[in-house]
Amino acid sequence: MEFLPVVVVFGLYFSSIPIAFALFAATLVYFTFINTGSPVDLILQRFITSTASFPLLAIPFFIMAGSIMNYAGISSKLMKMADVLTGHMTGGLAQVNVVLSTLMGGVSGSANADAAMQCKILVPEMEKRGYSRGFSAAITAASSAIAPVIPPGINLIIYALIAQVSVGKIFLAGYVPGLIMCLSLMVAVTIISKKRGYKPSREKKATVGEVLSQIKESSWALFLPFGIILGLRFGMFTPTEAGAIAVLFCTLVGFFVYRELKIEHFSTILKDTIYGTSSVVLIIVAASVFGYYMSWERIPQNIASLLLDITDSKIMMLMLINILFLVLGMFLEGGAALIILAPLLVPVVVQLGVDPVHFGLIAIVNIMIGGVTPPFGSMMFTTCSITEVPIIDFIKESIPFIIALLIALLIITYVPGLVMFLPNLIY
């Protein structure tokens, strides 16, 4: 009976009930019908007190900063930077697509926002240059998986709150995995483009002068992620204050440097922020309530013991966890999978000697790959709905990119020194 709420969560979720309400309803079932010795008021108290978290304020700030990017001209400057760096390569615009997601990850941190922006800006241009619409949508969705891995990704903050690890450390740990994903997708693009004859977007490689000129023009946008990391490392501000500074920085750059941000844009920016924040925070709070039930029944400890009974090999355990994340990622929304599974699995991997910061990146990369795969991949739906590409065409074109991301996942999983290099160096 103690596992009944878990069954209720999945039952409600697959009945199209939003995950936040499914988590809350399952906890209510437990404390109403199973654990009748505890007052139901405890759930409501837990629900309310979970919102009284200062670190949670970082989420709306970073969501707002990402929204301001698109109106402030920062996104367009980053696209020019990506074109200067990779436009001369085979499959030029597809390479630009991948690099732009990597650059945007450092400022927006949202996969769906990145996918939506590139669908509107890059996909039409790719079609004009002879790329198939299915290929364009597939590489846009696959490359958007990079954005939340590079700081200040919202999932990085959520995991830091769940696993009680340093936000600064997990931010630093995100850079190398993001670059590995970027390189793996660029190799896949090169192979496919050579077979199909997709041409570069630039006739020749940019000169050193052009690169330096574009770096200067894009420097304000490029400075943001490094400024956040340095500020966190040297104790100049907390993660929440970093989010507020990011909003102020993007606003000032949009108004006074690039001069593309207008007062009338702020009504849309505020709506984007409210919608994005409400959905994320509601899930986090509901998960906190659900975590109260799991702690009461010692479910994380029981699952840790069960998994350790299966194998005490770190290599095999990480493989099993990767498979678990990938399978659930096909059915669960990424944030929901992270919030449900992380509290269960962190005690297991810590007992095997895996750094929780390293595990956080493994988990986040997993759920980002899940966002590209059917049947419930959120980036898949975002790109297909905007570009009007049939799901079946998207699936056919996305297979090489999913394979490339899985190769990157294996490197991130089994070469921890790459992931932990920057956190160990700086901290």
From TrEMBL:
It is found in: Cell inner membrane. It is a multi-pass membrane protein. The chain crosses the membrane at residues 6-33, 54-74, 94-113, 134-158, 170-192, 220-236, 242-261, 273-295, 315-346, 358-381, 401-422. GO terms for molecular function: transmembrane transporter activity. The lineage of its organism: Bacteria, Bacillati, Bacillota, Clostridia, Peptostreptococcales. This is TRAP transporter, DctM subunit. The keyword Iron does not apply. It holds the Pfam family DctM.
